[in-house]
Amino acid sequence: MPDLMDEITSLAKRRGIAFQSSEIYGGLRSSWDYGPLGVELKRNVRDAWWRSMVQLRDDVVGLDAAVIMSPRVWEASGHLEVFHDPLVECLNCHQRYREDELPGDPKTCPNCGNHAFTPARQFNLMFKTHMGPVADDDNAVYLRPETAQGMFVDFGIVQQASRKKLPFGIAQIGKAFRNEITPGNFIFRMREFEQMEMEYFVKPGTDEEWHDYWVDQRLRWFTDLGIAKGNLRTREHDPDELSHYSKRTVDIEYRFPWTDWGELEGIANRTDYDLKAHERASGEDLTYFDPETEERYHPYVIEPAAGVDRAVLAFLIDAYRVEEAPTAKGGTEKRTLLALHKDLAPIKVAVLPLSRNDRLVPAAREVFDLVKPRWMSDYDDAGSIGRRYRRQDEVGTPLCVTVDFETLDDRAVTIRERDSMQQDRVPVSGLVEYLQERL
Ligand code: GAP
């Protein structure tokens, strides 16, 4: 269904959700900017993750580590040595691809149909730069390709400061960078993206149980936020596909329109690989002392690792509908709808005065003043009321509050619900309570 992606990217651009970065210069492939509504949507996705992973738990704490870490981190973690993709070049059109993603047997160039390629060259995905004024190898640093290493190198400090006992987790949301060979499919694969990762430290021997627990939890997070169960599945990594640090990885996959299934999140059992690697390289003790059993050991780590942008994309695709809706004149017309979960919707309430009439505006402003401190709200007085409803439907606003001439007499407003389009008349004095119940 490539058309669906065209429709969604076009809606995203038109309504200021996400669009090509640096567009006035022709854009930069793989870089995307989030506009006013996209910023809200993305923030809501992050907040929902943080609430579920940190706020509602007493066994997970937060971290905000630097993007540029000591280069020794990447040496110890194995990323300098093995964080590679196999790069090949078509011998006919000279386009470059990841060898493992080339379609067909024999492998076929998607651009020109040729079957001959250069031998695969291992290409490191980390972005390299220099710290300070001298651009030599002694000053080389890397933009982090995963947020996870912050949690490993800070494990000791965070554990002591938070006085957490095992099992406990450290969560982080932040930018990560990978020099992907083939970025694409809108915000699915970018070179600069955002991750939501949590490293859950457990006693060795309990790791397999905790792994299953976190796969269930993470799957539920997506369905609780409205993703249809039938559009999600879990997939075990084959042994030859596992990352260098992983004993077992389960991906949560979404039915993205351009492919059968695509990775949304990976949940890995990283064992004690990272803590031991950093202990060896730094000389610092990264063991945990268990006060109950008086044992000292390296915890095992279960890692649910999600992409913010990929989650945003899945939520957008899953919420996107085009339906026939009744018009005031008794016919029907197409309406485009983002049936987003209320917690994710960029705007929760839109206040719509029936017209820009001088008598209506103060009443509508009064209603707007009531709602805007509580919820992200929009005040829209441009165009017919029907068109304004459509505009709000298209960006997923769950509730529209219409202020009309009757409001001036009965001090009540009409509230329209996005999905059912049902309308309720509610007194202004009870408006906040009414919205609170539904939001
Ligand atoms: N720390 C483990 C780790 O980074 P990963 O499977 O490589 O594992 C985790 O990445 C998640 O980050 C992925 O499931 C995906 O949602 C997101 N992600 C990875 N690479 C991405 C990219 N190039 N663009 C957008 N999101 C990406």
Structure description:
The protein is of the alpha+beta class and 439 residues long. It has helices at residues 2-14, 36-55, 71-77, 79-82, 148-153, 155-162, 207-224, 273-282, 308-319, 360-371, 385-394, 405-410, 431-438; strands at residues 18-20, 32-34, 60-62, 84-89, 96-98, 121-124, 128-130, 140-142, 168-177, 192-202, 232-236, 248-254, 262-271, 288-290, 295-297, 300-307, 320-326, 332-338, 349-353, 377-379, 399-403, 412-417, 423-427. The strands form seven sheets. Strands 3-9-10-16-13-12-11 form a seven-stranded mixed β-sheet, sandwiched between helices. Strands 20-19-21-22-23 form a five-stranded mixed β-sheet, with helices on both faces. A three-stranded antiparallel β-sheet has the order 5-4-6. β19, α10 and β20 form a beta-alpha-beta unit. α2 packs across α9 and α3 (71-77) packs across α8. The chain is globular and about 75 Å long. It binds glycyl-adenosine-5'-phosphate. Residues 146, 148, 178, 180, 189-190, 193, 195, 197, 263-266, 303, 305-307, 309-310 line the site of glycyl-adenosine-5'-phosphate.
Helix-strand blueprint:
Layout: H1 2-14, E1 18-20, E2 32-34, H2 36-55, E3 60-62, H3 71-77, H4 79-82, E4 84-89, E5 96-98, E6 121-124, E7 128-130, E8 140-142, H5 148-153, H6 155-162, E9 168-177, E10 192-202, H7 207-224, E11 232-236, E12 248-254, E13 262-271, H8 273-282, E14 288-290, E15 295-297, E16 300-307, H9 308-319, E17 320-326, E18 332-338, E19 349-353, H10 360-371, E20 377-379, H11 385-394, E21 399-403, H12 405-410, E22 412-417, E23 423-427, H13 431-438
Parallel strand pairs: 3-9, 19-20, 19-21
Antiparallel strand pairs: 1-2, 4-5, 4-6, 7-8, 9-10, 10-16, 11-12, 12-13, 13-16, 14-15, 17-18, 21-22, 22-23
Helix pairs in contact: 2-9, 3-8
The protein binds glycyl-adenosine-5'-phosphate.
